[in-house]
Amino acid sequence: MLPYEAYQPNYDFWVASGSPGDGFETTNRIAVGLEEVMALDKNISLIINGNLCDFSNGMSSLEAAALSLAGKPQMTDKCHGNIKELNKSISPASSTHYDINTNAPGTSMKGHRFAGPDPIPGVIPPLPGGKHIAQYENDSFVFGPGHAESVIMADTDTGVAINYTQFGGLATNYEDPAKDTRANQMIGYFRGYSEDQNMIFTATDMVDPSGVSGYGAKIYNAAKVSGVVDLNGATHVAGTLKPIELLLLDGGTSTSLAYKNPSGNLMSAVSQSKNNGFPYYINTFLRFTSSKPRP
């Protein structure tokens, strides 16, 4: 398990997608994999992988792996959950289709519950849906259930909506057994005694040499002890850990982490196989800048 890397929230936070026009297209070539994403801007303090990615044409992981082995690695063009960069509309890579049995409109890609509202409508007992992060131009952060559109913030003086960036499709299933033998990526929000003490942090949980991970609950408990608060409005299933402002991104072979070391150099620390095109490349990352990372 790697240590927490914490960043002050009053600096730029944004998301970028590998889809054309969403921030990762440079010199007519889309950046693929962590190394190329790092090369886009060496002033970035931290890069981690994003939400669950998928193919609009319905391509399976096995089909993508076969193409990768044939020297033709593919990159996903969709993600489960909304992503929106500052001063832009919601990315066409986004999907909020949550029905796992039907295709998202205009695609051959099945839905995912983490792309949906929270809870998922019409399901009894309640089934948790997706979670999101939003940051507004006034530097306020919001962690919440469902989609960021439900928490659009207006200026208290003018009533005009404040521009924001959002990242959806996240989860709070900390105890999912499927996560116990794979890497996991998390992002959280610590609220200090004053605004200048608030921090966004990430935690990257790697599989140890024995092949066991399972740190999700341990990181959750450490976050709770540190003062991370409950996630307001999130669906809580009885008998499970109550959702807090600690959200799970994609993990496993998508897990990525690059950070600026004390010398000021951006270095790759974790780069799982989907950063190398197997079985495919992922198309969403989160990038952060900070005045000074906490050691």
- What is the helical fraction, as a range of percent? under 10%
Query: Helical element count?
Result: 3
Question: Topology as H/E string?
Answer: EEEEHEEHEEEEEEEEHEEEE
The main pleated sheet reads as: 5 strands, antiparallel
Average pLDDT: 81
How much of the sequence lies in strands comes to 25-35%
What features would you describe in this structure?
- By secondary structure, this protein is mostly beta strands.
- It has one domain.
- Helices cover 9% and strands 26% of the residues.
- The two termini are 16 Å apart.
Outline of this structure?
The chain is mostly beta strands and 295 residues long. The protein is 9% helix and 26% strand.
Strand-helix topology:
Layout: E1 5-7, E2 13-17, E3 25-26, E4 29-30, H1 33-40, E5 46-49, E6 53-54, H2 61-69, E7 78-80, E8 83-84, E9 94-95, E10 131-136, E11 141-145, E12 164-170, E13 184-190, E14 199-205, H3 216-226, E15 246-248, E16 256-260, E17 266-271, E18 284-288
Parallel strand pairs: 7-9
Antiparallel strand pairs: 1-14, 2-18, 3-4, 5-16, 5-18, 6-7, 8-12, 10-11, 10-12, 13-14, 13-15, 16-17
Which key phrases capture this entry?
9% helix, disordered N terminus, mainly beta, 295 residues, four-stranded antiparallel β-sheet, 3 helices
